[in-house]
Amino acid sequence: MPSPILAARGITKKFPGVTALRDVSFDLRPGEIHALCGENGAGKSTLIKLLSGLHPHGSYEGELTIDGQPAHFHGIADAERAGLAVIYQELALIDEMTVAENIFLGAAPRRGPFIDWSKLHHDARALLQRFRVAIDPAAPLGRLGVGEKQLVEIVKALAKNSRILILDEPTAALAEHEVQTLLSILRDLRSRGLTCIYISHRLDEVFALADRITILRDGATIATLDTAHTHKAEIIRHMVGREITDLFPQKNPSSLDYQSAILRVDHLSVADPHTHQTRLHDISLNVAPGEVLGLGGLMGAGRTELLMHLFGAWGERRGGEVELHGAPLPPLKPHEILRRGLALVSEDRRRYGLVLPETIGFNLSLSSLRNFSSGGLLDAGREFQKNDHAFRTLRVKAPGLESVVAKLSGGNQQKVVLGKALMTEPSVIFLDEPTRGIDVGAKHEIYELIRQLTDAGKAVILVSSELPELLGLSDRILMLHEGRVGGEFTRAEATQERLLAAAMGQRAA
């Protein structure tokens, strides 16, 4: 067995009042892809920051070695000189620059005091070709999709002659076909000797890619397992400390009454408010009380735009009709839509769903303050009671309502966003990627909540890029392709192959 290229032994990292890592041990072999799994708050981010030099030597206990020699990183530059590069979920790229300029950002080749533009573009093209990335180095980065930007970030890291690549949730914002492209490139890089630490909540990816899996829980190393000799249920049990036998809760059997659909959309066409070009074409759907209608498609298919338009936050309606409880629903502002009984949980919770510097209580009641107001005065006592009920019902892991939202884990932030929406007492809930970037334990809790909502007669429209999630939660699934309906499937008809074919504008057998 080869000696580790990187090893962490007995690592303990403390913050005021919190022990983030407790006696953690982890090693990385040359040429392997090693997955790091754990719930939000398990210690993964702290460990990565330590390995990358963000938490400098001396700020933690234990030993870090590279090629068997002590590694004393006092900053990011020290880690990069040792051959480590980290690619975070929030990409460190500049849209206004070209692909080539981003690849050599801060390290552009020079001819005297000036940038050697000819060499910069030549070297960028050579790097892209070397790693089989079919992107024009002269293209403005802002014109690329999220998946292509992710590949540029990887090439940028490899341009620094990195030996160890650390990827933190690299597929969280990617569509299914972009995920497969990224996994293929990482396998190719592994075959060329690159070593990789891969962090993901998506266990399908972990099992498709990783050689070994290390699980952290509550800041401690629980186990390191060979992927070939374990299974998802064992990984989940180690992550959450309990068995989760059914990730997707079973729905109470009942027939759905489509004649009494809460929301109907007939032949809806919508234009982009900036370009005025039609973006959604002739879309029809309906959702019944107690139903989860899944909405799938590749990135750019129009899923988010459709929900945003129905919520009054995007687009110019060019044709079609929308009905709510049998009555016409014209284009309205979001605050008016909320009053009609529709609520949206946005895919970007940090940008659109939360006021991060404020408290949990402030955020929970933000969309429903009118319910606690009379004569222009706020009934703070009643607001607190409702907030406290939502806080406890959703099992938000925080000391209390006065905790600042920015300091919560991703899963707990998502619970606050959901709670804020549910406190408006909606009849229809739009969930746009509700489990993106959260761990399996928090996912299970959100799945349980969705089932509780439908059992109570609420209608849910669920957007997800994870096909197993769509299949596991939805009663019916509508796939979009380039702003049009590519196919509609009942639970019995739906398979991953059929859904993907519909998303690509094809028909599957």
Q: What would you note in describing this structure?
A:
This protein has 509 residues and is of the alpha/beta class. It has three domains: 6-240, 3-Layer(aba) Sandwich (Rossmann fold), CATH 3.40.50.300; 260-341 and 427-509, P-loop containing nucleotide triphosphate hydrolases (Rossmann fold); 354-425, no CATH class. Helices cover 32% and strands 26% of the residues. The protein contains 17 helices and 24 strands. The strands form six sheets. The chain has a six-stranded mixed β-sheet, with helices on both faces. A six-stranded mixed β-sheet has the order 18-21-22-15-23-24, sandwiched between helices. The protein has a four-stranded antiparallel β-sheet with strand order 2-1-4-5, with helices on one face. The two termini are 46 Å apart. The mean pLDDT is 90.
Number of domains: 3
User: CATH topology of the largest domain, which one?
Assistant: Rossmann fold
Largest sheet report: 6 strands, mixed
Oligomer: single chain
Separation of the first and last Cα atoms: 46 Å
Poorly predicted parts: none
CATH superfamily of the largest domain: P-loop containing nucleotide triphosphate hydrolases
Number of DSSP helices?
17
Strand content: 25-35%
Strand order of the largest sheet: 6-9-10-3-11-12
Total beta-strand segments: 24
Molecular shape: globular
At the first level of CATH, the class of the largest domain is Alpha Beta
